[in-house]
Amino acid sequence: MTQVTAPTLTLYGIKTCDTVRKARKYLSENHIVTTYHDFRQQGLDETLLDQLIQGLGTKALLNTRGTTWRTLSDEQKQSASDPAAARQIMLEHPAVIKRPVLVRADGEMLVGFDTAVWSTFIQGDH
Questions:
Q1: pLDDT in tens, 61-94
Q2: Which candidate, 115, 1, 103, places its Cα nearest to that of 49?
Q3: Which residue pairs from 73-76 have beta carbons closer than 8 angstroms and sit at least 24 positions apart in sequence?
Q4: How far apart are CA 57 and CA 70, in angstroms?
């Protein structure tokens, strides 16, 4: 019988995102227990966003290829080069955050999904 321990990984994303779906499937198939936080359902507060920015930076978090980005005004897009403006855009439009974000209990973070990178990252979670 496999011993189940409390999750030491948290996955952040949006359930309708294809990449988040792939990541969740990978975690499930590999019996990796995580806590899942959906930005649309559970929201995104300033504290959480600041932790993600501290760990990854606004540039890595801001998804400039997605549908949400394309709906922003030209003024918002231009202002996003300023970290404070980018932070505000992410607070107002959580779907503009690149996903998935995987956070270990030690505070280390990854953004995006790559099975090789994730495997190494998760192995470091002891």
A1: 999 999 999 999 999 999 999 999 999 999 999 9
A2: 103
A3: none
A4: 21
The pLDDT, as a whole number, for residue 7 is 63
Report the SS3 class of residue 36. strand
Active site residues: 17
**Token code pair at residue 55:** 């760990």
| Other CB atoms within 10 A of residue 20 CB | 21
Token pair 């403006």: residue: 85
Does this model's pTM top 0.70? My answer is: yes
**Residue that has been written with the tokens 């202002």 in this structure:** 79
Q: What is the DSSP letter of 117?
A: H
CATH numbers and ranges of domains, the chain = 9-123 (3.40.30.10)
Burial degree of 81 (CB within 10 A; 0-12, 13-18, 19+): exposed
